[in-house]
Amino acid sequence: MPLFDQLYNFAHWLTQNREEAEDLVQETYTKSLKGFPSFQLGTNFQAWMYRILRNTFLTSRTGLRGAPSVSLDSEEDAADLAVVAATPETILLAHASDELVQSAMDHLPVHFREILLLCEVEEMSYQEIAQTLSVPIGTVMSRLSRARKALRDRLQGQLQSG
Amino acid sequence: MTCESWKPKLDAYVDGELQSEEQRAFDAHVRTCPSCAADALARLQMKRSIRTAGKRFTPSTEFRQRMQPRIAAKPKRSPGFIWVTTTALVAILLVVDLTAIYSGRERVRTQRIYSEIADLHVATLASASPVDVVSTDRHTVKPWFQGKIPFAFDLPDLQNSEFSLLGGRMAYLDQSPGAQLIYELRKHRMSVFIFRDGSLRGKLDENSSLTKELPFSMEAWSQGGLRYFVIGDAGAADIDRLAKLFKSTGS
After folding, report:
1. Is the dihedral of CA B133, B177, B100, A129 positive or negative?
2. What is the extent of the structural domain holding B217?
3. Which residue has the higher pLDDT, B180 or A64?
4. Which of B100, B87, B175, B54 is nearest to A8 (CA)?
5. Size of interface A-B (CB pairs under 8 A)
6. I need a surface site. Which of A119, A139, B99, B145 has the fewest CB within 10 A?
7. Interval A18-34 mean pLDDT
8. B138 is a domain residue
9. Residues A24, A56 contacting (CB under 8 angstroms)
10. How far apart are CA B55 and CA A134, in angstroms?
11. Under a CB-based contact definition with an 8 Å cutoff, are residues A139 and A76 in contact?
12. What SS3 string covers B224-251?
């Protein structure tokens, strides 16, 4: 079952619950089978599957609960990319343990968590992420930049408090 | 371009999203700008941390077993249509997988592996204690790895050679343990990485020209079930001579 493990990992990160992740993956496969005739050959199948999973999540109870309460429109200004200078702290953060990084990611808003996973774990290009999230590439770049900054800030806080 | 004009593009640079010409220009800038080089390295390390930490959840065996027949199950209505759809879906998934393996992903994966090797080398040289076993004697360095890595390897005899062994340390590539040996040649320090070939199978395109895009000279090859990487800021000819010394140990 190609993509099964990846979709499950992504679903579990989104829902943060094993049972809900299993339901989400199951529904994703059901919808993909039903909607397969609408899949356009030549387009990105991986992005299509992730988009189904994500849309299903967003309309679920957990997804609606985790939806941002403020508009994300302002982030579409690609020129407003966050620039974070490298400091000894950022290099120190690179040595943070998996558990610390996972804990920091757990606490990120879901729209930050998902874009980090699509970029770093699924190794999707900006174009593929844009297709999956149905947003312009400029938004992908600015959201990714903010997500990374949010993760760095949280990790830094955890390291300093620990 | 000034340093300030590069900074906003650092994310796109480490994500490999710049156009090839701009990527090359950025490579050249990074070689001469310690600030951007440190920033890019920190971002790459962060990317790697997220990648490792992000692969966190695996489906249970029960769920996998439950899903397998459902995905392939014949539905109650329109069996022919859904059966064809299911078959087509599986076929598409396989094609997507194969395409991903043999086209763009291969390049990305190879690039990632080579970048990690370069990062490991730079991080070692920047470390206050670059080696865990300090010795110029290969008969001291080689046994130090016994029990620490899941394979054995040979080190070349450096008599009558300009290279000198400084020591070794453990290294991890794609979560697999391996050996890193540090050599010196006229103040140039070079790393030789050795990993089990199986742990990298399918993740590396040996014929890739990506080594030419690195800010270091690098040579990579596979021999006797092991994967070797030689990297350093010495000239390509020096890297090649060190690589040949290693290749001769296995022949």
Report:
1. negative
2. 3-54+103-249
3. B180
4. B54
5. 139
6. B99
7. 90
8. yes
9. yes
10. 24
11. yes
12. CCEEEEEEECCCHHHHHHHHHHHHHHCC
Residue B107 domain flag: yes
pLDDT per residue as tens digits for the range A86-95: 455 555 565 6
Closest among B180, B182, B185 to B234, alpha carbons compared: B185
Question: Is the Cβ–Cβ distance between B113 and B35 less than 8 Å?
Answer: no
Instruction: Check: CB of residue B220 under 8 Å from CB of residue B193.
Output: no
Contact B46 A151 (CB under 8 A): yes
Angle between helices A18-34 and A4-15 (to 10 degrees): 130
Residue with tokens 């299993």: A22
Angle at B87 between CA B203 and CA B83, to 5 degrees: 155
Of the partner residues A29, A144, A145, the one whose CB lies closest to the CB of residue B71: A29
Is B66 within a domain?
Answer: no
* CATH number of the domain encompassing residue B241: 3.30.200.100
Tell me if B75 is assigned to some domain: no
Taking a C-beta distance cutoff of 8 angstroms, is the pair A120, B54 a contact? yes
How far apart CA B96 and CA B139 sit, in angstroms, is: 49
- pTM flag (> 0.80): no
With a CB cutoff of 8 Å and minimum separation 6, the contacts of A156 are: A89, A93
Q: How confident is the model at residue B96 (pLDDT cuts 50, 70, 90)?
A: low
- How many structural domains is chain B composed of? 1
* End-to-end alpha carbon distance in chain A: 41
- Contacts with B59 from chain A: Cβ below 8 Å: 4-5, 8, 22, 25
- Spatial CA neighbour of A105 closest among B45, B52, B50: B50
> Which token pair is B238?
């020096």
